[in-house]
Amino acid sequence: MAEIKGNVSPELVNITTRGQVLLERLKSGQAAKFAPFLKRMEVILRMRLAAGDLTGYQARRVAVLLDSIETDLRAVLGEYRTALTGDLVDTAIQQAQFEAKSLDTVVTTPAFEAVIPAATQVRAAVLSAPLSVVGYNQGQLLESWLQNWSEGQIEQISGVIRQGYYQGQTTEQIVRALRGTTKANFQDGTLAQIDRSNRTVVRTAVQHMSTVARQQTYEANSDLITGVQWVSTLDSRTTSQCRALSGRRFPIDKGPRPPLHPACRSTTVPVLDNAFDILDNGATQASKGAEGGQQVAADLTYYEWLKTQPSGLQDAAIGPARGKLLRSGGLSAERFAQLQLGQNFQPLTLEQMRELEPLAFKRAGI
Questions:
Q1: What end-to-end distance do the CA atoms of the chain give, in Å?
Q2: Which residues pair with 288 in a beta bridge?
Q3: In terms of Cα–Cα distance, which of 229, 250, 246, 248 is closest to 238?
Q4: What is the 3-state secondary structure of the chain?
Q5: CA 82 to CA 189: how far, in whole Å?
Q6: Most exposed of 46, 66, 167, 209 (fewest Cβ within 10 Å)?
Q7: Which residues, listed in sequence order, are joined to residue 230 by a DSSP beta bridge?
Q8: 255: left (phi over 0), alpha (psi -120 to 50) or beta
Q9: pLDDT tier for residue 157 given thresholds of 50, 70 and 90
Q10: At a CB cut-off of 8 Å and minimum separation 6, what does 307 contact?
């Protein structure tokens, strides 16, 4: 891949990092909107099961009951998906406007004014751009991805009910399996699992929305932007894929984009053409290391940051063997990052890394 030339404004990294913090709060608020829909699902289940009055496993009667339940649940989750998609599109339009204003903030060339993509364009992009999540469901469109998630939750509920009747459980026992127990504050039931699953889905969908909106702004301002640079969250919870991609540059229309995995927190910043005057205020970005939250240099990559942390945090973040290799293998942060991912941005094992850098493993005593 050809080198992406240009500048990344530290001030723009700072703005983007602050924006990502606000986006994480938005994800929590958006996930909380599922609560009334989940309550409606609970009411449907309790009413339908009580009215079913099945005293034993009768396949035909259970099938009729499940068909009725699934129809009602599908309607509720359909309403939820419609509301969620509408919120995502509205937020994407705002995100695109925010990105354009950020460019205006850091580019001091008098003749430059950032182009804001049209709302219709952003909406179409959010719905038509495939998700970047790596795995069995990669490449799906947002609506089909949410649809598949909904169907999976319905199948999970149906399975609990079907298995319960087959095993001779009472209606009360089946309801308890779905709702959970008072002792566990109802966090051990199927509905609680679905609520947790929804949080992951929403966090991933919001990150997808943000990335697509940002991408639309990049492409609308391609006279200024020559590429994009990956920005990873600097803490011990960042995944191996995002750690390794931190600081890497890609063409404006190629390469991976967040979310690379469920609940991804990474983002991107544009690489700006050298022909434009860029504001540089020595900006910083947030990190969370062994000493708590701190501000560090905005251009610091994940492994450059991790090298400055105590060995305990390094081992907690990437494992003892990789931590020792980072400290004692004699590798630069850039080379260490390159060793973490193979083709299609899949993590490499230690043995695969050893084949690429045997001397580093020898120096580290691994």
A1: 32
A2: 293
A3: 246
A4: CCCCCCECCHHHHHHHHHHHHHHHHHHHHHHHCCHHHHHHHHHHHHHHHHHHCCCCCCHHHHHHHHHHHHHHHHHHHHHHHHHHHHHHHHHHHHHHHHHHHHHHHHECCCCCCCCCCCHHHHHHHHHHCCCCCCCCCCCCCHHHHHHHHHHHHHHHHHHHHHHHHHCCCCHHHHHHHHHCCCCCCCCCCHHHHHHHHHHHHHHHHHHHHHHHHHHHHHHHCCCCEEEEEEECCECCCCCHHHHHHCCCEEECCCCCCCCCCCCCCCEEEEEECCCCCECCCCCEEEEEECCEEEEEECCCCHHHHHHCCCHHHHHHHHCHHHHHHHHHCCCCHHHHHHCCECHHHCECCHHHHHHHCHHHHHHHCC
A5: 26
A6: 167
A7: 268
A8: left
A9: very high
A10: 326, 327, 333
Distances (CA, A) of 75 to 49, 61, 88, 151: 18, 22, 20, 11
Which pLDDT value is given to residue 346? 81
Range in 16-30, 218-232, 269-283 the model is least confident about: 269-283
What is the model's pTM? 0.82
Distance, CA of 213 to CA of 211 (rounded, Å):
5
Q: Which residues on neighbouring strands pair with residue 296, listed in sequence order?
A: 285
Measured in residues, the chain has a length of 366
Q: What is the pLDDT of residue 299?
A: 65
Alpha-carbon Rg for the chain, nearest whole angstrom, is 24
Torsion of CA 100, 101, 105, 106, to 10 degrees: -20
Q: Answer whether 149's CB lies under 8 Å from 74's CB.
A: no
Degrees to nearest 5, angle at CA 275 with 270 and 276: 60
Q: Which amino acid is at 314?
A: Q
Q: Which amino acid makes up residue 91?
A: T
pLDDT confidence bin for 350, thresholds 50/70/90: very high
Q: Tokens for 119, please give them.
A: 């709302």
